[in-house]
Amino acid sequence: MKSFILLALVVIQLALSACAIFPYYSHYNVKDDPQEPAKKPSGAYLASQDVQWRVDWRCRDSWQIDTKAKSANPLGACPKTDNNFIGIGISGGGSRAAVFSAAVLFELQRYGLLQQIDVISSVSGGSFTAAYYVLSGDDPLTTPPTIEGSARPRWDPDVVFPKLQKNLIAKWVRNSFWILHILRYWFTYYDRTDVMAWIIADTLYDTTWFKGRGFLFRDLNPQRPYLILNATNNTEHAGGTKVFCFTKECFGKLQSSIDHYPLAHAVMASAAFPAVFQSVTLKDYSKKGDWYVHLIDGGASDNLGITALGKIVEEKTDLHSRKLILVIDAHKANYGKDPRDPDPRSLLDYYIDSNVIDAYQTLMDELRHGKTDGLQQWLRENNGKLIHLKFDDLEEGYPELYETVTMIKTNLKIKKNEAACLKHAARILVQEKMEELHADPRWKDLIQFPPAEGYEIPPCKLKPKKQQDEPSGDPGKERTGEGE
Fold it and tell me: What is the reported pTM?
């Protein structure tokens, strides 16, 4: 199967290489319309760094879309009485990060904390989950519809995980041979990144696929937290920070409308891993002539999604407010070559040097430590706390589970057992951190303790610990009471 996929990729790269004859599909963003906010209410205000975190979250969660409204601002009637800033940063890591972060969010929901989140900032694989959550609704009877009236996807484990666990790579290869994609690839700017964005929309963010675009930023659910999807600006002479946020502020600099931008393309930009996908391009309408911005994987500039969080919490909060930042980190450190192998080349290395990927992972590893250390120090000095949910905390108490989840490759496909183990890991890690919060008088009022009943997690078949023949069984049985 691996050989077939690799051969297919080579065929696509060689046989479908062409030049653009028709100037289509170079970008999907449109020029800003100053009158647009007065035309229809929009959920796109959630894609902003101007986080209205003082708005009482109970009021926010009861807000409904009025299709006859003339204003895009739903916050006017909500009291600004909340003194808690709560943010979540979600790391990259392909489907491993998508499934793990979704599992963590479901656990936080059991403790009543997810409902209070003010902003979610994500990169790469974590953006699959972040965008889905902010688009989705809990109860079809009380969830506001999208701008055009389409039903929202449901935030439910039985709905979410089957979507996130789909083999997007296999679908990508198959759809690359679809005649329409081939023609676009040959004669326009359409590339393999566009093919994957189409698949992402069809899988996660699309009940209107017949219109060819899926859900837009304006379709975000106003009952949800603010959403910041992060990519890396790979444009020459970009200047300043390399982090590009899919927000009204960044789009405003391009004189472009975030309302009409497809969610799937923003997620694809955040996850456009170098050497696999091409960049996602935006047109810069602020300049005369044709100028563009080229975006690649957000992990190249911030693999935890906390650059935007740090900026917001430092600029928008005050010393008296409580600040809680949770980092959902699906990072795995055991990359590199086998020290016992005299020739570590794989089949892929005959076409692409995998050392480039290892070098990229090494640079991201160094980057993440500096960012978390800096934010944690600032929070300690400013009435705040950082909770870092990471696999490393499993190594001592759950060595077999640690071995299992850190062996999951960074890819846009995942096996059922790998997903099950990630869900167990999320339940264990969140429980430990929530117990710490509950034991701290400063923070215990933020959570519901004991938590609500959790969803049923399938058994996890563990990798044996090194120099150990038999796995220890279900990792969640002792701590969570759930097993086979």
Answer: 0.87
